[in-house]
Amino acid sequence: MGAFLDKPKTEKETRKGEGNGLRYGVAAMQGWRVEMEDAHSSIVSLSEQLKDWSYFGVFDGHAGANVSRFCAENLHSFILKNTKFQAAIKENSSSPDLNLLEQGICDGFLEMDAAMRELPNWKSGEDKSGSTAVTLIVTPTYFVFANCGDSRGILCHNGEVLYNTVDHKPSHTNEKDRIEKAGGSVMIQRINGALAVSRALGDFEYKLDLSRDPKAQLVSPEPEVYFQSRGEHDEFVVLACDGVWDVMSNCEVSAFIRSRLQVTDDLEKICCELLDTCLAKGSRDNMSVIILLLPGSPKVSEEAIKQDEQLEAEIEKKLAAVIEKESGFDLSEMTVGYAISCLSSEEIEGLPPGGGLESKSNVIERCLDKLIDEKSKEKDLNQKNSSKEEDET
């Protein structure tokens, strides 16, 4: 069976919350992978001193789930305890020293990585897991993104993606230079032909040269930190692991979420719909997403709800016509993927932007089950009537 299951696990862990004028939703799904290695954090009030600061993070583990879980539980504490971070907010947390704040966040990542390395499972070399990390601190005036690896965050503002973090891949020039200086190589876009990310927490088998600075190892635990000023037209932030970004672009994710926010204000539901869409689009990885809703976000529209209902009715109608054409086909073997393939040649207006037919995979599955059931009952009835006629003759 290798690294994948025979069929995906689609059950989801979800969460929601609100505070500081923000609302958020979370969803995580194991998918095709044999183990769930993602983890996430959501803290509306970061500390007693920083009650109006919020913190969110998505951590994408590999080779095991221990590092990602440790990050989710502890990274914010290492950042808060860092002396530079404390100095940045000492005078006035409403107007922190941004240079010190950046240094404090970076050092928090490095300090946690070093502390984790000394714990028994990692010190012995028994645990070889690692994790990417994308975090967001929301202050009253700034969005502070920190990214280490290829999980990604985007900020959507006034109908477009205003900002996105940059993935750390071994083939990128700066990353490749560091890897080669540390004695490694980049083959098939992986470090030594094995690891697909160039920055991560954990992964200590790639950090063995203790004569080198932690930031100069084959795999660096150093994040890149970015500041974006908050504005009245900010709509939402999305943090997600590469299981999402592998199959949907920044603009597609943004457009899809924006369209769904006009249909429902249930952020957990929208998160789940996004993961189901990515699964239908071919994602084979674990998937986790946090959607953080901001005051400038789209609002639910009765017209959009009506259009969505009409769209689903149209999909059911066209699917019924497809099944009618497949009269010689064993309908019990018709998969959602095959149904989507058949419907893709049809002209269907009003599909969610960025999501397409795949974003209606659950609707298609529900309609398919209903239509197959109706066909089965019709077949049984015809057989009974035929038997009755034979008995009468």
TrEMBL record:
A Pfam family: PP2C
SMART domains: PP2Cc (SM00332)
Residue ranges annotated for the PPM-type phosphatase domain, each copy included: 23-294
First and last residue of the signal peptide: none
GO molecular function, one term: protein serine/threonine phosphatase activity
Membrane topology category: Lipid-anchor
Keywords on record: Cytoplasm, Hydrolase, Lipoprotein, Magnesium, Manganese, Membrane, Metal-binding, Myristate, Phosphoprotein, Protein phosphatase
InterPro entries, alphabetized: PP2C, PP2C_BS, PP2C_C, PP2C_C_sf, PPM-type-like_dom_sf, PPM-type_phosphatase-like_dom
Family: Belongs to the PP2C family.
Protein name: Protein phosphatase 1B-like
Native species: Actinia tenebrosa (Australian red waratah sea anemone)
Gene designation per UniProt: LOC116297018
